[in-house]
Amino acid sequence: MKTIIAPSILAADFSQLANEIHKVEAAGADWIHCDIMDGHFVDNISFGPAIVGFVRKQTKLPLDVHLMIEHPDHYVPRFIEAGANSITVHVESEAKHDVAKTLQQIRDAGCRAGLTLNPATPFAAVEPLLGQIDLLLVMTVHPGFGGQSFRADQMEKVKRAKSLSDKIDIEVDGGINAETARLSIQNGANVLVAGSSIFHALDYAKAIRDLRGE
Length: 214
Ligand code: DX5
Ligand code: ZN
Hints:
alpha/beta; eight-stranded parallel beta sheet; 8 helices; binds D-xylitol-5-phosphate; binds zinc ion
């Protein structure tokens, strides 16, 4: 199965966002990862549905929207309206929603439903919900900022997810570079999110090939 590369535009140059999106698409990106932060669930603020709608106009690639926000159920309709193809929500109680209900809400709207967990959250929190999702995102850093170091201890979760389901996408996010990409793929991940290692590289196409291990 071909590894899916999802550049996170959090690390892009926002003064030329359209150009950055065209460049990663031409360089071989498969999805565009949009990191949404509200300053409550995580200690940072990024961007909202209006920017996702703008990104939608720049590319036909699937938009993979990662909601690091409280009350994601309240905002899901706006991100779907903006053109999201998959929406991933957090399982932690700090996200303040009924997780199973939100996943159903996402699917009912014809969108792919993703679930994610922070490094400190045990795998048992997502396990009962694996049958209700299209994608499991294993956070390999504590969410909030790009450019942090990969946590190899999270590979246990990737392995466990892979052993339990061959139907869902298994995505990793945080500190992904050529080396940690290889480790993630070996353990069973098939979707790699990468911010810094793509957008801070001189040659985006080479950075993407390196992540795929080509
Ligand atoms: C972390 C975000 C990530 C982040 C990845 O809160 O969810 O998507 O932008 O950035 P890098 O690849 O720089 O770790
Ligand atoms: Zn993310």
